[in-house]
Design brief:
Blueprint lengths: L11 E8 L4 H12 L4 E7 L4 E6 L5 H10 L3 E5 L1
Antiparallel strand pairs: 1-3, 1-4, 2-3
């Protein structure tokens, strides 16, 4: 049995470390802002680990992701 993901052939998956998320509301705020970036097909934020997994049609500009996370009120620490 293989794990299913939201990724489709040709898509790019990136994981970012975000500081300051502590609850479901935080996850929703970060996911909502990142999902508005062009080409993003799915976003999964996990407050417990501080990780945000983004699936997109093409690699995203890290500064655009940083700006979206900042808009949500959090800080992008690094791309994992």
């Amino acid at each position: 049995m293989t794990a299913q993901t939201d990724a489709t052939p040709g898509s790019v998956t990136a994981v970012y470390k975000v500081s300051g998320m502590s609850c479901g509301h935080c996850e929703g705020a970060v996911s909502g802002e990142i999902s508005e970036l062009p080409g993003v097909s799915s976003v999964k934020a996990v407050a417990a680990t501080g990780e945000v997994t983004v699936v997109s049609a093409a690699p995203l500009d890290e500064e655009a992701v940083r700006a979206a996370v900042d808009e949500a009120g959090f800080e992008l620490v690094a791309k994992v």
